[in-house]
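Q: A reviewer asked whether we had any structural model of the full assembly, not just the individual parts. We don't, so I'm hoping you can provide one. Inputs are below.
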Amino acid sequence: MYLTIQPIDVAKMLLEARASDGALCLFLGVVRNENEGRATVSIEYQAYGAMAELEMERVADGLRRDFPTVSVSMQHRVGRLSVGEVSVAIVAVAPHRAEAFTACRAGIDRIKTTVPIWKREFHTDGTSDWVDPTKESEHRV
Amino acid sequence: MRIHLLYFASFRDIVGRDEETRELADGTSVRTLWQMLSREVPKFASFPNMPPAAVNREYARAETVLSDGDEVAFLPPVAGG
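A: Here is a predicted structure for the entire assembly that you could use as a starting point for your response.
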């Protein structure tokens, strides 16, 4: 299972390294306190759960194909998260650092592109908005 | 035929429900279903393009012809991570 309503157990994911691995690259997505200039107090992550699992598996398959020396594990949180909580975790382990970094980056980039997960930001005034990355004023990477 | 339609995130807010079952004519495509929804929901009609669609939990093309029992969802822009 790639999706979890429980806090992501990052420490457990760090145990993925094999004896042949010399590099472990960890990416954590964390709930930030603002977006597009507006303060954020929490974010609700909603998923089309059954499809999101399949799309995460598809991302994992693609990473295995594109980076055969790398083993990647991924977890995405759903539900209501406060500022500072981990929303997504990617661990890539490989014999050497270059492919671990590249695969880790590819993992998070691909998740953001295809996996049916949405986030609603709650603001300090009690209002909320669904985030639409296609309408953000600038594309951040 | 009968299909099961799911709504998520902003689309769920727009239509005010999570899911529904619909009776459709045989041969109805994903695009035709979107056109039907657009006639019922003014907000959908204002979209310049049909949003990405999923049939039975896989991304599907607009030309995909639906079958009895299909699970269909039109997806707002994804924003995971």
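A: Points you may want to mention in the reply: Chain B is about 25% helix and 25% strand. The interface with chain A takes residues 6, 8-10, 13, 54, 57-59, 73, 75-81 of chain B (CB under 8 Å).
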